[in-house]
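Recap from last week: sequence in, structure out.
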Amino acid sequence: MIDLRSDTVTKPTEAMRSAMASAEVGDDVYREDPTVARLEDLAAKMLGKEAGLFVVSGTMGNQVAIMTHTQRGDELITEAESHIFYYEVGDIAMLSGVQARQVPGKRGVMDPDDVKHAIRDSSNIHFPRTSLIAVENTHNRGGGKIWPIEYVREIAGTAHDRGIAVHMDGARIFNAAVASGIGADVWASYADSVMFCLSKGLCAPIGSLLVGSRDYIERARKNRKRLGGGLRQAGIIAAAGIVALESMVDRLAEDHANAKLLASELAALGYGADPAEAETNMAMVDVSASGRDAPSFVEAIKQKGVLCNAVTPTTVRLVTHHDVTADDCRMAVEAFKSLL
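Predicted structure tokens:
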């Protein structure tokens, strides 16, 4: 099977397996795991922050970030189809007691003026306090869209002028960095906290990082414990994360080239795909030309040896990653062609 469902399906490399087998470990709740400490320091350094915190998933990282920035009854501003709103099981409300104010964006990107107008007047007794603005870069449901950095800069400036924190859901921030040529530390410089995943395009089997100021991360560490995220000999999995950060970032460009290949070839066949919008490792494809809706198309192409996910009634998402080659992509195109 050619698995284009997500970059979460990547398998750890042999170098990762070797590092995991020989990792030096200790009890991380006691701050005694040297491999976890090394990973957290490396992550913070790469994103230009003071400290990092290892968490088991991107969802945990985002929710710990929100809990640490906000108080119950607050409101956060986020794009209407952001991951923290769309895919995190209502955790904003359930765990933090915070309300999400959704701002519709274009492919996941909020207009800075819309964000400015969404900030509440905290002097009005009827309104909650806006305490956090969240941006997602790259944007999942936006098809791997990279935010214009000037938008991030403007939104961050508005937020900080008003005493509002900024969190970046940077699950795929290194995809944004590699594709845009703008360093991950530059993107992160506009946010008070950043979460990024090791277990997507970077191929580690588990884990994400939350980075920010030293004081912020100390407070976040307690919230991680509240969620059951205090780990013991976690160096075994952190070791794979170190390999991911040291050796798997630059190769993301291959995934981006393969996504553009898919979009270009499928557009030439008559499917609805725009190569210009395949900015990173995702191609969004309207499959209406096949005469099927997206869910039935997913089942049909599975029989041809290709796995993908429906994201709208007419659109499927194809995600390239380390375990999918350019030849695999060409074979997937042939499968798409057979369904026309």
